[in-house]
Amino acid sequence: MKPAVELRGITKRFPGVVANKNIELSVAAGHVHAIVGENGAGKSTLMKILYGMLRPDEGEIRVNGEKVTFHSPADAIAAGIGMVHQHFMLADNLTVLENVILGSEPRRMFGIDFAAARRRIKEISETYGLGVDPDALVEDIGVGERQRVEILKVLYRGARILILDEPTAVLVPQEVEELFRNLRSLVEQGLTIIFISHKLDEVLSVADAITVIRRGETVANVSPKEVTARRLAELMVGSELPSPQTGESTVTDEVALEVSGLSMVKDGRPLLSGIDLRIRKGEVVGIAGVEGNGQAELVEAIMGMRPIDSGTIRLLGEDITHWPTLRRRERGIAYIPEDRHRHGLLLDAPLWENRILGHQTRRPNVKGFWIDRAGARRDTQRIVERYDVRTPGIDVAASALSGGNQQKLIVGREMSGDPVVLIAAHPTRGVDVGAQAAIWDHLREARANGLAVLLISADLDELIGLSDTLKVILRGRLVAEFDPSRVTPDELGSAMTGAQEVA
Question: Are residues 265 and 197 in the same domain?
């Protein structure tokens, strides 16, 4: 049988860098083919070439044995290729249905046939267990459901070859297993899946074949039956797998952040109910929960980004409940946002301007009433060196950096200025094992230096490894507390889905 996709000698150059160099890739039809590599290794560029977003400088693409030339994603879609991006391509002000059919609207005599679209969306959602409500407004749904909407959008367009970029980044173990069952179902029906992930254990469990890319070149094609996660990591980055484990306790008696009776209601529906939370200096409190159960609302309440209906928030004993976000930032609350592109960076701005974001009233970014360009530039250079942000310079746009390096820049910025509390929402989402290890090291170091950390993560191993205390949020309530040294990911996952509620 002819391969579903062949890439032969693909080379792509950008000013000053060769992103892909003579890449060879053959994806068998009806298989899950994983592509692994560090951020910046060239995976995203390669997938953008396959999806018609970029044109290769050299090489050719074959789909089902036929040579093709893609000038745009529309050409790739017409050839049966769909891509689910790591950073979602959805319009917040539209419903799920409107997002799914956008550009592929079913027509009837006097306009769009919404009834037919709704039937088709429900059929796809039920067939593959996606659990998507076509009438929900996208701005009201969580990250996990947004990802499922993206998958549904691709299937709606009739894709037979799916490119999935970090599809499990927001899922708990039970949901990952369900997704993998869905992928197997797709494959059994003849679809082909290209699966990009940094979670090597997942790659080994779901893939039929694995291609490793390093520094823009294909370095290995391996069978998951013949390779270990440790060996894959060595192929990717030249080092063994990092571990999120922390050492001895650094927890003090001084409470840095205290949340009492926090409640939030929207349209008569409780988003948060009676949240009580204390984080002491030198302590990491981890919050586990399925996406959409109140984690984002809790973070935004603490940051002053959303109003609360009742309760108090205290920072070092001082009531900050009604303070604006900037004042909370100035008093020492640092914030690594869940979505770095929406809330963490100005992608078109240079790195030194991104250093100023959220810190625009404090040194070294200002002198008096004026922005201190020289001071901001010097400190950006310090962050680049201290946090190993791999970049040609501080004047390049943030969009030019790989995801892992963007995240390291944000971590470096938020660790600057001696914060008292760090709100870390999915700090290693979508980064490779090298960047992940670096971010874990910085969190461990900050904890040892007395920082109080609220850690929100979908990576249960990360939560268990880094946290001193673990709490589970379900339907806007804290329903369980675990000792991280004794809990397993499966026990945590059960509590997160309500199958097991532990007081």
Answer: no
Residue ending a domain, choose from 417, 438, 457: 417
Based on the domain organization, do 154 and 272 belong to the same domain? Answer: no
For the question of whether the overall pTM of this predicted structure is more than 0.70, the answer is no
Domain that residue 101 falls in? 5-237
pLDDT at residue 503, rounded to an integer = 40
Q: Which of 194, 220, 237 is the last residue of a domain?
A: 237
Q: DSSP string covering 102-166, please?
A: TTS--EETTEE-HHHHHHHHHHHHHHTT----TTSBGGGS-HHHHHHHHHHHHHHTT-SEEEEES
Torsion sign over Cα 138, 142, 143, 146: negative
- 413 with 423, same domain: the answer is no
| Pair (30, 54) in one structural domain | yes
pLDDT at 245: 64
What does the pLDDT read at residue 431? 75
**According to the model, what pLDDT value does residue 247 have?**
63
Report DSSP letters for 67-80, one per residue.
Answer: EE--SSHHHHHHTT
Name residues whose C-beta falls within 8 Å of residue 273's C-beta, 6 or more positions apart in sequence.
Answer: 263, 475, 476, 477
CB atoms within 10 A of CB 378: 14
Residues with pLDDT less than 70, the chain:
16, 39, 86-87, 109, 143-144, 169-174, 237-247, 499-503
Please report the pLDDT score of residue 171 as a whole number.
66
**Shared-domain flag, residues 12 and 130:** yes
Residues 341, 328: Cα–Cα separation, whole Å: 22
pLDDT value, residue 172: 65
CATH for 98:
3.40.50.300
Helix (H, G, I), strand (E, B) or coil at 90: coil
Same domain, yes or no, for 97 and 172? yes
Residue type present at position 120: R
DSSP class of residue 392 equals S
Q: How far apart are CA 403 and CA 390, in angstroms?
A: 11
